[in-house]
Amino acid sequence: MNVNSVSNVTEEILSAILKCIDEAIHVVNTDGITIFYNEVAAKHDGLEIKEVVGKPLLSVFPSLNEQSSTLLKVIDTKKPIYNETQSFVNLHGRKIETINTTLPIIVQGELIGAVEIAKDYTRIKQLSERLVEVQKSLTHRSGKAVKQQAAYTFVDLLTSNQHFSLIKKKAEKLAKSDSPILVYGESGTGKELFVQSIHNASKRATGPFIAQNCAAIPENLLESILFGTSRGSYTGAVDRPGLFELANGGTLFLDELNSMPFDLQAKLLRVLEDGAVRRVGSTNVISVNVRVISAMNVYPGEAMDQNQLRTDLFYRLNVLTFELIPLRQRKEDILFLSGLFISQYNEKLGKQVTGLDDDVKEIFLSHQWPGNVRELKHTIEYMMNVCEGRLLTEYDLPVMMKNIKPSIESKRSSFVLREHLKEVEVQLINDALKAADGNVQKAAMLLDIPRQTLQYKIKKLNL
Fold this sequence. Notes:
Structural class: alpha/beta
Number of domains: 4
CATH topology of the largest domain: Rossmann fold
Number of strands: 14
Helix content: 40-55%
């Protein structure tokens, strides 16, 4: 095989690889002529590949120019651009929103072109902006702020667990404060319901309640959604208030805070410190009166160790902190909530189920419930739909729940009290240390034992 044949095969292999990649890829030469454009890019831009390849970039995307095109900027500066927002109109008049990473292509020290990897978030941006507009219209209807979304109160937080009851009482008392609140707990423990209850028990109950999941929106878009945009801040940008402005006089709930990028966390910290926001692309500062409540599904210490949460932001948010303990640590609530959910679905489905049989009770109490209350509710919902009798039985269990029964029976092989007491003691101490973020003094207070006793047990049990 000669050199030209090898070169042709290599180009074919490279082209095939680029076509298989599930990202939009656009390559231009130093004259701004497109030399490669894959099918994903064509789908994003609403074009055919043949409409783009071999043509000048600006003739295909007439709304761009040498300053606003990330590809042409890289050709001009020979410097890479990472995660930059670009808004443009294609040849057919369709508006496209992308986040681009654009890199210079340098061979043997010479620039031969630029490659762009783009993520299309047009639809996400449209939906997010529509949400902001809806919230804006609700907030300012008839010139008054109206309550949004916060449907739950502490009355809806039902429990028979003493520890959780104390958390509720503490939250009701501290709801009157305007200090930031941090709520953490596993997925499914009811963090948003808890936060809505705090809002409705606060002095801001008549103000707006706006919730935003930080993991659901791309980084560049999240900033504009939170802080708003100023006309001209980027191509296609318009004057639009962010969620902080829309939540003025009320509560802004930021869920999965640990998913927020570090630089955006720094801007959030600034807003908490100053009580003012600055829209993206603007130099004007807008004062806001907003209570921020944040939530995470991991322990704050763990989030900081994994560089998911800024230390300075944590200490600013850590004024008032609540941990919602998992369902497996409040066993009495498993059967208590099961009864409540059965009653709810009896009413919805027109049934007269009276409860769980003994085998199902045993399975429920032995299950770890990784999805917590949400998992329990969905399990009951499934069983209520398929059951035919007056009691929910093993036959009605979801497949995954049926598979755990053998492990339950195997636990019955040991009846040695000392072993089981040790297991319970280790579990309680570990839970207390976690709740106290490793502080032995606080953990000892939770366990209601002297600090010296706890230190002795930690050493003895190798914890």
